[in-house]
Amino acid sequence: MTSPFAQSTGPTDLILGLPVHPLVVHFAVVLLPLAAAALIAIVVVPKWRRPFGWVVLAGLLAGAGASLLAKESGEAFAARVGWPTEHASLGDRLPLVAIVLFVVAAAWFWLQLREAKAGRKRAGILTVIAAIVSCILAVAAIVLTVVVGHTGAAAVWEGRIQDAPAASSGQSAPATPGPAASASGSGTSAASAAPSGTAALTMAEVAKHATAADCWSVVKGTVYDLTSWIDQHPGGVGPIESMCGVDATDAFVAQHGSQRTPNKVLAGFEVGPLVQ
Known about the structure:
Number of strands: 6
Structural class: alpha+beta
Strand order of the largest sheet: 3-4-5-6
Helix content: 55-70%
Number of domains: 2
């Protein structure tokens, strides 16, 4: 079974046949923290404001634009491969923080320029407040960018890294039957096919399908065959493997809640209602 995600979501979807998101996200994770750190530097060191002030503002603007483009392209990318929930949620907040940071920093820079032209020796209360808020927002932008980047990397690599020791030690990973194999119903894959009339969809039956090669799970009273989804899951194989053979309602709801896309994907793997 193939993932039922949309295959085209607009100009932020693909470029030269490759997803836009992995290409543009690096601009945001480099430009925004660098410009934010530079802003703190020119606030703290007055003599750096004249030679570097405009460059810092340009960097903040570019970082805000890059974070917005990363958000939009991330949504297009998620429409193809699924939603890594935590990463998507944090990624939605980053452009807002970046834009507010640029606006406040620009206001502070304008205020201190005006005071410098007027020959004032001490900064006014408004300028001081703007400087403090700018620094707080700069730190928030740096931290949030790091966390967004980490959750994105974890969504892509965490499950694969966990599997690396088995591969390096020469142990073979459990085979995951492809879509065709799951549908054919032969050998081990037969257990992953829809049950015959003699096999009721009870928890005892679900518990027999508790491996990566044969993975059934229960969510909200319905049995799902997740075998072919394990290697496709954008959050890595680990979260799906932990669902195999058990009632994973609490885990699924905690991670995805009522989000439309994950629930739509899950519905595509339905076997039938659980028999109590």
